[in-house]
## 1
Amino acid sequence: MASAGIRGKMPSPNALGGLGRALLLGGATIYGAANSLFNVEGGHRAIVFNRLSGIKDTVYEEGTHIMIPWFERAIIYDVRARPNVIQSTSGSRDLQMVNIGLRVLTRPVPNKLPEIYRTLGTDYGERVLPSIIQETLKSVIAQYNASQLLTMREVVSRDIRRILTQRAHFFNIVLDDVSITNLTFSRDYTAAVESKQVAQQDAERAKFVVDKAEQDKQSAIIRAQGEAQSAKLIGQAIQNNPAFLTLRKIEAARDIASTIAGSQNRVFLNSDSLLLNLAEMDMQTPKTK
């Protein structure tokens, strides 16, 4: 009797099967709901890998999208420009070692993401950029002398960008900007350049001194010629009109009188020595013939 009562309280096999199916169905429903949607954030794009057909050719833009759980998974790409800084040591055309740093802004071509994933994967930048940048830098730097790299920096940067753009386009990568961040030379070459600059400055200084001396010489000659011409004209004026000398004496007396009058001290001087005795001056004028 007791065993029969226990068997009556135990659930039947059909009930256990129904409960298992309900739990399985509920779990599958939760898994499907959680894995059937994926979000693409701003500045990103997505592609989908299907376990049966492989990478789909569709590129998913920003927003929420549907996929088949377990059979498909989303691969997210950041399509915003990212900086890449590369340092390289290259030889110039005159065999000088040049240390150059290059900063490149790159991004993938959005509609080529399936092809990028098939050929390069998600780490396309680390796979491609170091090699093509190093090769491009060495080929461009070898075309210029060390001095040209300093004076023609903009041209060098433009050549690097042109070649890099062509090389990156082959891998479906876009270059938004290329800039040279630093450009240095070996210690011996830097010392030679500094010595050359000092020598050029000394030469320019010596040239300036010579030019200044020549200008001073010309100025002295012109001044002497002017004084001689002035003396000649004054002599001719005195010869033609003796009253010219008297006029000069009057002008000198007027200047002396103005100076003495402006002084706060009381002065007693000989009027003859100071040309102040104007009453005794000879006011003769040349007689007309």
Note: Residues 187-240 form the longest helix (54 residues).
## 2
Amino acid sequence: TESVPIIVNGDLYTRADIREMKRRTGCDGVMLARPALYNISLFRKGEVERDGSRDEEGGRNDEDLAEALPRFQTTNHGGYYGYDSPLLRSRTSVVQEYLAHCVRYRTHSKNAKYVVCEMMNSRRAPTSRIPFMDMAFKGGQSIDEVCKCRNLDDLLRVWDVKWTIPLPNHSAGGSMEYAGNGEGKGDDDTPVARNYDDRYFLDPDKFRRERTGEVAVSASNLDRDDDEKKIEDSCDADINSKDGNGVSLPATKRPKL
């Protein structure tokens, strides 16, 4: 018989969450999206996967399973697999490494800025999780400060990134240092397929209201254009109609508009 791997998804913000989900369901693995934006080092296991504090106390029994999983997930987990796990890297260093990769692969500054802003805010996280999430950064960086950046050089200065990731087959000498060569300058003037607006992060409620209004007006215009097109098509069909032998019929009168 063939077995199908089972992957579970859904707001697992600590390794304690991941371990408990796998223990309860027997799943083969988990998928993370919002928790990965919060701190991608959540995937780090360390050299040896240790037991959590509850397991060290003698493990769980059937009565423990009666505790609702959502309640377990919204507990301020401490210890080796909790929110302050020693396996986790600082969120500042995570952003710095991400930007170093952006330099390596010449990522457009608008894309990089968008991802960094998503990593810095908690609005996508469940409200029950937010009290346990440390949203501060060592350098005091803010979303407002990041939104003012206009190129990769600006982002690197804000996050104090003085190194980059070497490309394959390149010697480490010199390539690990960031020399501020200005390749990112002018990025904001470079065409990009996606339209980015800093208000999406700085004032999301107002931005959402404005966009909703714009979409409603656009939809109204599309409906009006579609109605006019139908009338024109109807007129053309009446004027150019022919009988079964291909003989043109007398022109009909256009409807009043």
Note: Strands lie at 7-9, 29-31.
## 3
Amino acid sequence: PDSASARCGVVLDAGFSFTHAVPVWDGEAVERGVRRINLGGKALTNYLKELVSFRAWNMMDEYLIIEDVKERLCFVSQDIQGDLLGAKKPPQVNTFRREYILPDGLKHPRGFVKEFSLEAVCESLKKKRQEKEGTKEEEQVLALTNERFMVPEALFRPADIGIPQAGLAETISLAVGACPAVMHGLMWANVICTGGCVAMPGFKERLFTELRPLVPDEFELYIHLPQDPVSAAWHGGRALAESDEFTKRAVTREDYLKNGNRAVQARHLPAWAAKGGGGPPKALYGAAAAAVEAKHSKLTPSSSSA
């Protein structure tokens, strides 16, 4: 709530189809700074489908099952090289290995994650060897190791799956850099993450690790994660609908049909941005932003002296 009530910052929305980095100032999106990655939760699920279909069961037609596997088992690695080495270990000592029991419509109407322990893994392997001849396995087991963290890795390295775009950290940096310099300090101090993809364990820590080197030393970096990132956008829309601002921002159907997107911009684009100015007036961003501006001017040569 505190991060949202600040009305300025950067919103990283990693949703179903795309990922957007949207700078916000005084409750308005700074249009010039919006950046998009053509990658979202759907692409990650499809990527996981391809991996498990190639290595284990054919799951190309089982989107909902793989979506559940992704939400339950995937996490963001903090040390990708070290985790890849750990995932190569034999199953008996592999702490990354997890088993997902596929639904069969009879004994298991829904899939679930098998309780993990190295002893249980050894017992399961022993049972498989005993049942190798004769009877068929009762359970259809989908085992995952490095897939658990290599799939979310695509958000930070889209080029790994053939998408020639910047990763999350670089995209946020580009979004902030496209805004007036006086905004930068307050935006870096309030990076808000929403969407289902950011709910993966380790996401916030990894994003901070990659983003901190891209932030100037004079600025603090704070990343905020809502309790429920999936429904955060809905709660924001509900709050807007319940506020007095809604009537000021709403565009009637007649106005939209007559003026198109200009009708929307007239109600949402700040006056300083519409005039093409270098930034908002000091009366708008207050004493805190004025201090950031003063500090920034001391560290960065002005255009007149360049």
Note: Confidence is low (pLDDT under 50) at residues 291-306.
